[in-house]
Write a structure and sequence with these properties.
By secondary structure, the chain is of the alpha+beta class. The protein has helices spanning about 45-50, 55-65, 100-105, 110-130, 180, 190-205, 215-220, 235-245, 255-260, 265-270; strands at about 15-20, 25-35, 40-45, 75-80, 85-90, 135, 145, 150-155, 160. Bound molecules: ligand AK7.
Amino acid sequence: VSATETRRWTLNDFDIGKPLGRGKFGHVYLAREKRSNHIVALKVLFKSQLQQSQVEHQLRREVEIQSHLRHPNILRLYGYFYDQKRVYLILEYAAKGELYKELQKCKYFSERRAATYVASLARALIYCHGKHVIHRDIKPENLLIGAQGELKIADFGWSVHTFNRRRTMCGTLDYLPPEMVESVEHDASVDIWSLGVLCYEFLYGVPPFEAKEHSDTYRRIVQVDLKFPPKPIVSSHAKDLISQMLVKDSSQRLPLHKLLEHPWIVQNAEPS
Ligand SMILES: Nc1ncnc(NCCc2cnc(NC(=O)Nc3cccc(C(F)(F)F)c3)s2)c1Br
């Protein structure tokens, strides 16, 4: 799929395989590009649903942003095409599937596994921020696992270049930092907050500000009501790192390059 950026793809170029997963806007299938025998994931989106939700501009932005990103921990979006009713995204296939399913199965991860994932995500986000791209939607549902067990950030449907910001929010509040929940200006440090929420969920199996009602989650986030349960037992280095990321003042959050030097990461993350 090297010539993807230029040539016009059609469905006939692919043999469609098993369904890989179901997203909000459509299904994902395993597929093989007939000429190269290259295995890909094909996400099928219904134009009607995209129009209904008025997200076409977001999809265009995702394709545009993704076409410039190349990183081992970022799932490639090779290209797209459309027919009368549907839009198709040609995606890198992540052979070990969806991280959230793995987290549900294991309940929570070991400190080594969690630190390895957090370090690879920090490197991917350093790369994105270096290109003035913020993801804004870091959560288990948007993380996939490659054939060698490496983590891949997927779905840049909410990402932006850091000069325009307006958006409507949907999906879980759990991962939103205070400034997005309070809908004020925000910058790349929103991804540091979400990575802190993710690190907590990797270690405890639940996000830190979870509550029954949206309004309670909202209050816990803006108050940074961060509590560490007695079980499972988690090292003080891990709690220290999380406490340095889940800081209300976005300018005081631990910068990502400092995260990579934090003792918990240095002592627990597998070398990349
Ligand atoms: N094993 C696997 N290997 C590879 N992929 C898999 N699943 C697909 C992961 C995705 C990557 N990128 C995505 N992007 C979007 O969905 N974008 C999207 C969709 C609708 C609306 C919008 C928008 F319009 F709102 F922006 C943007 S989904 C699996 Br399971």
